[in-house]
Amino acid sequence: MLFAPFLLIYLIIGFSFLAVLFLLIQLDLISYAFMALGLPPRAAVLALLASLIGSYVNIPLYTVRSGPPPAVMTVNIDGIIYAIPYEYAGDDTKVAVNVGGAIVPLAIAGYALSVSPQALPGAAIATVVVALVTHRFAHTVAGLGITVPMFIPPLVAVLAGLFLGRAMNVPRAIHVIAYVGGVLGTLIGADLTNLDRIADLGAPVASIGGAGTFDAIFLTGVLAVLLAGL
Prior knowledge:
By secondary structure, the protein is α+β, with helices and mostly antiparallel strands. The chain has helices spanning 8-26, 31-36, 41-54, 99-115, 120-137, 152-167, 174-191, 214-227; strands at residues 58-65, 74-77, 80-83, 92-98, 139-141, 145-147, 205-208.
């Protein structure tokens, strides 16, 4: 299923950010930050680009019975306007997984852990912390699905990474702890633990890692990478 998780203006902002990031890499200002995550700088930018483009792609998993969608075309959540995918509306809700907000970040997290296995204990703890906090702030939106304030998961992930990396004496793994904890924690705390509430929303599509949580996951990756350069 292909549809925009948010309006075009946010996609333009995302591409603008990637352009600035690429320029900084060309000037060798933050190359170490990407290499510390286990990816060559340009490969990391391509991964973030794939995440951004992949936010439009949702792979259906199953359907649940639900009520009719609300009679609005968009919803405003924390200042961000999301479009309701009415082209997929029917008598049920299609539960899907978002490529850019779930599959790509999970692949990067797995690769980062394989490069920095010493980060695994800290990443597991950070995942639990982020999941608990994210679940507390996650809420359902009729017609859309599950949303979470976009800055809470990445900030909690970064703080957890800083604390756990130093407490466990693995300072060079702080960025991996923050990234893995932020991605897994957001997916678990916001999406997976709220799947039982999907049937009450009348959403045409409820996407794991999609609209409502994609921006938080994308921002988590950005902050975790930049954290490595501090």
